[in-house]
Every structure is written in C-alpha cells, then in structure tokens.
Design a protein that fits this description.
Distance between the termini: 77 Å
Structural class: mainly alpha
Largest sheet: 2 strands, antiparallel
Oligomer: single chain
Strand order of the largest sheet: 1-2
Number of strands: 4
Strand content: 5-15%
C-alpha cells in the first residue's frame, strides 16, 4: 500500500475510536467528489490540523481528474472563514506556491477548448433577455462600496513582468484585436459625439482626482528630438516617433 494511503488510514481509523471535547471538523473519509457517501460510516471528526493534513495527503495518492479535485479541495481549505479555524493551519509558503501553480495549470488545461462548459454554445435570445432583465438596475449599496474600498486600501498588486506585458501586447494586436477591421459608421460617430458634448465632471469628482495626485511627482521622459521633458502619459502621442521636430 502507498505510504500516503497508510498515513491517511491511520488518521481516519484513529478518529473513529475517540471522542474529542474541543473544536472538530467533519471529514468524509472518501470525499464526496470521489464517489463517497454522506453517511455516518463515511464521516469522522478530526481536529482542524488533522483535517488539513488529510486533504493534503489526498493530493499525494490521487491521480488524473481525482487529483485535480483534491487540489481544489485543499486550495479551498486555505480560504478564511470566521466560523472555521482550519485556515490557520501552517504550511510553508513554497509548498503552498507549488500547490497553487499546479492547480492553476490543471485548471487552465481542463477549462480550455472543449473542456469549457460553454464551448461551441451560444445563448438563445430568450436567455439573453432573461440575463439582461435580471441585471438591469442592479446597483451595489453604499455599504458594499465601502467594503470594496476598505478591502483594496493600502493593497498594491505586484508589478507586471516584461514577459506578461509582451504577451498582453501581442494578444491585442492586429487580427487578435476584437476591433480589428471594424469601421465605425458616421451615424455611430455622431451618436458618440452627441453623448460626449456638454459632459462635465462633478465638483466632488474633480476634487477627488486633485487630492489623489496632489504632492506626487509625475514621471517624465526626455524626447530626443525636441529635448523636452514630457509627462509619460502624453509622450507617445506627441513625442518620440511622433515628434514634429524629428529629423
């Protein structure tokens, strides 16, 4: 028998013959996603640490689609939940990183092409109308907005790698761009212009933007043709290769 199966059986069998008077979690010996039943003989009470370890061990002796399911189950055990203590179980950052990377690769492979539930399918007009009607008028509350703001406060994402930037650039160029070859009619242009005319930002919005950039140094770039230091956001449009003073 595989050593991991042996360890797994030892933990679950030991749990069958004891009574714990502190925090425990119910565990399916044979996971439901692997065909186990939601019955008493397939359930044991484990400590939070044992529960996490059992799910970790399950990733060691399952294969194929079953392993993907167990990786997902282990990944979900790291999600924080105020009613459960298992997310505090310690695991090294390297092991967790490896598990996440393997799960992401499997997820991408299984959900691409024919593995995607919507592959080759389109919504009917009736379904589209139902989706549209359901979402029409949906607005988040002020409380929800505040939660979103607080969740993002002081959180900075990691900078994009050069490789990622190159891939994104390539994926949006030429025929890969969803607007490639599309011509906007004069009627559409007129509608866009009419909609934009007279549009003004509120005083509150203007103040927020001003407060956000006040005191910050704006990065600049030297144009080799006209010799001026130009703000990086406008540099590509009027300077560099598009500078009027280039020889």
């Amino acid at each position: 028998m595989n050593k991991y199966k042996t360890w797994y059986n030892q933990i679950t069998n030991n749990a069958k013959n004891r009574v714990l008077d502190y925090y425990t979690e119910r565990h399916h010996i044979i996971p439901l996603s692997l065909g186990g039943e939601d019955t008493a003989h397939n359930l044991v009470n484990l400590t939070a640490r044992e529960h996490f370890v059992c799910h970790w061990i399950l990733t060691k002796f399952t294969t194929g689609q079953d392993r993907y399911k167990m990786l997902n189950a282990l990944r979900m055990m790291r999600a924080e939940n105020p009613n459960q203590k298992r997310y505090k179980t310690q695991i090294t950052s390297r092991v967790y990183e490896n598990l996440k990377e393997e799960y992401a690769a499997l997820q991408s492979k299984l959900r691409s092409g024919k593995g995607n539930g919507m592959y080759g399918k389109t919504h009917t007009e009736k379904a589209r109308r139902a989706i549209s009607e359901k979402n029409t008028g949906n607005q988040i509350t002020e409380e929800q907005k505040q939660k979103i703001v607080m969740a993002k406060k002081d959180v900075k994402r990691a900078p994009f790698s050069e490789e990622w930037k190159q891939k994104m650039s390539k994926s949006k160029k030429g025929a890969n761009n969803h607007r490639y070859g599309v011509e906007v009619s004069k009627e559409t242009k007129a509608k866009q212009r009419a909609k934009a005319l007279g549009r003004k930002q509120s005083a509150e919005t203007i103040k927020k933007k001003a407060d956000a950039i006040r005191g910050k140094l704006k990065p600049k770039k030297l144009c080799p043709h006209c010799g001026r230091d130009i703000a990086v956001n406008t540099y590509p449009r009027w300077h560099g290769d598009n500078c009027k003073q280039q020889t």
